[in-house]
Amino acid sequence: MSQYIDVSYDTKIPNNVGLSSDRRVLKALEKWHPGYLDWWKGSGPDGFLEDLVYLRTAVSVDPKGWAKFGYVKMPEYRWGILLAPQVEGRVIPCGEHYGEPAWQEVPGEYRAMLRRLIVIQGDTEPASVEQQRFLGKTAPSLYDMRNLFQVNVEEGRHLWAMVYLLQKYFGRDGREEADELLRRQSGSVDKPRMLGAFNEETPDWLSFFMFTYFTDRDGKMQLEALAQSGFDPLSRSCRFMLTEEAHHMFVGETGVGRTIQRTCEAMNEAGISDPTDIDRIRALGVIDLPTIQKKLNLHYTLSLDLFGSEVSTNAANAFNAGIKGRYQEHKIDDDHRLLDATYPVSEFTDGKIVIKDAPALTAINMRLRDDYTRDAAGGVKRWNTIIRKAGIEFELKLPHEGFHRQIGTYAGAPITPEGEVISAGEWAARRDEWLPSKADGDFIASLMVQVREPGEYAGWIAPPRMGIDGKPGDFEYVKLHDA
Ligand code: BYC
Ligand code: FE
Ligand code: FE
Q1: Cα 151 to chain center, whole Å?
Q2: Which end of the chain is more exposed for a tag (fewer CB within 10 A), N or C?
Q3: 19-479 belongs to which CATH class?
Q4: Per-residue pLDDT reduced to its tens digit, 189-201
Q5: Atom of ligand 1 nearest to the CA of 364
């Protein structure tokens, strides 16, 4: 089979999968496309259909130089089907088929499991766009607005990636699932999105940055695990999606970092050294560090829930089938079958937190979550460096894994961010110490105003250190049609 590196533009849908000679799938995608555009117009960025946005579009799947930048109206963005190049001689990296050639077609016995994972992955992508629908109206700069829209069009492309797999490999029920992906809606009562965190609101820009830092990072970990799939088309899709994911987490990390930076600067300018002097700090028009910690607590814990239960037969089955691997499976030095191995898992029983050894095969979710927590800790360290350099005494922390959980062993357990088990009554009474309250939300909302002069930034956030694509500070990242 030939390798497709460059993207072909000979059909309406850019691709490197030879779509022009695959009439059946091309027709299915062309049939799905208008519904996608309707969804984008009705559920995507609200009020920005006519504006020119400086976006990158993939023109190659070569890790060097795959992107081209230019002004595009979002509904005209060229969403494409892009797979990372096929690896010659790739084998199934885990489970009972370990070492057998990777599947190029759906293995019949795992069809339902595979379809379910692809549908769940696909469901999160449009969900995040829906959650972020109204943020353009309060963008703190054109630079940030552009980054939001870049993330949005790429999540749209991730939906295309999963829809392609469904339509190409799953026939009629794949096409039905592809249609359903446009019917569910984030936060809907009748037809909600499938996973908890994707039905929550992203009400303001600090939430957006926390979401892209913490929840897109769940995306990264899940994509890493699916990139290890023995079903090669899924592996190749996810490998390419990961190259885009890096930018989403960059937006999150730098967004939170710039928010912290501005708060620290404002405190220093005003001679306030106590980070808990919240009223005086808020009067400066910046977000106090304790409130930033609360937002962190919320988005981190919602994201932990996305890993499923610590002990899971679903996860064991997927691993054993060779459908979903572990993070960096190929770098792990073990038998890749986990026949006798154990892994420490947390358990909340009789009001106590205990760590037990469980069969490693059933602890796949817990292990991926642990990898996630390590990965997420890096940025928190860098945020703390910003605070320390400003000479302010405050440290952001990832809360305990048992705090504010809705899935798994800790679901509903009254545990503090420090990991202390308390009574349910005390937890409820102290909730607002740890998670954003209505008043916190109202305050943050009061700072959210759209800034649309090139090179200018809202008062609560510092400018970025560098532009996108090497552009100067006053670059007009979005040309607003009503400007
Ligand atoms: N909410 O055995 P269990 C991204 C369900 S993010 C609601 O504990 P399993 C992105 C579960 O479905 C990455 N339900 O867990 C980020 C099951 O229900 P059924 C998305 C939940 O199955 C930002 C039952 O509980 N990709 O890409 O091992 C922007 C028992 O499940 C939740 C993936 O997630 C929850 N949080 O693991 C844009 C990868 N958790 O089937 C995009 C594909 C569990 O018994 N998905 N349940 O009715 C998976 O690998 C797995 O489905 C999960 C759950 C890891 C999500
Ligand atoms: Fe995505
Ligand atoms: Fe993402």
Answers
A1: 10
A2: N
A3: mainly alpha
A4: 999 999 999 999 9
A5: 28
